[in-house]
């Protein structure tokens, strides 16, 4: 891991009142270095040997509660995790962007610039969170099939 990145992860942990542990830094590093959300099986595969499953699960849960990462269920029902924007805080996520699930590579992308349009809710319904999964073919896969 590069020092400048470690510094960034440490600041993020500190800001959220979390102790610096090697496992937490590692999870942040994996999630930050990918252009798509990271599935739980993928995470287990690449860091599951260094960190046991229970610890990994707790780290993900804590990060989600702190507003550091958000969880996206893909079309197969698999949990995927992505780093949040700076506007997310503990128990107050603002990830109202579209998630794109590619039918070919199965990756889940955060389309941060594509916001979920405001929904007109019937009277009496209060919205706490919104999820919108769009399926299709991602840019990378489309380029390779053309
Ligand atoms: Zn968030
Ligand atoms: Zn794809
Ligand atoms: Zn997202």
Automatic annotation (TrEMBL):
The keyword Ion transport does not apply. The keyword Transcription regulation applies. Keywords: DNA-binding, Repressor, Transcription, Transcription regulation, Zinc. It holds the Pfam family FUR. Belongs to the Fur family. This is Transcriptional repressor. It comes from Pedobacter punctiformis.
């Amino acid at each position: 891991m590069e020092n400048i990145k470690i510094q960034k992860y440490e600041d993020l942990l500190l800001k959220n009142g979390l102790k610096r542990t090697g496992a937490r830094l590692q999870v942040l590093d994996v999630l930050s270095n990918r252009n798509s959300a990271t599935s739980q099986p993928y995470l287990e595969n690449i860091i599951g040997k260094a960190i046991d499953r229970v610890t990994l699960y707790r780290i993900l849960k804590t990060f989600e509660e702190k507003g550091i990462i958000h969880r996206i269920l893909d079309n197969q029902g698999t949990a995927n995790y992505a780093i949040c924007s700076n506007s997310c805080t503990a128990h107050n996520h603002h990830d109202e962007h579209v998630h794109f699930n590619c039918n070919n590579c199965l990756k889940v992308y955060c389309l941060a610039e594509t916001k979920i349009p405001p929904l007109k809710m019937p009277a009496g319904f209060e919205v706490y969170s919104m999820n919108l999964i769009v399926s299709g073919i991602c840019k990378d896969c489309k380029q390779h099939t053309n």
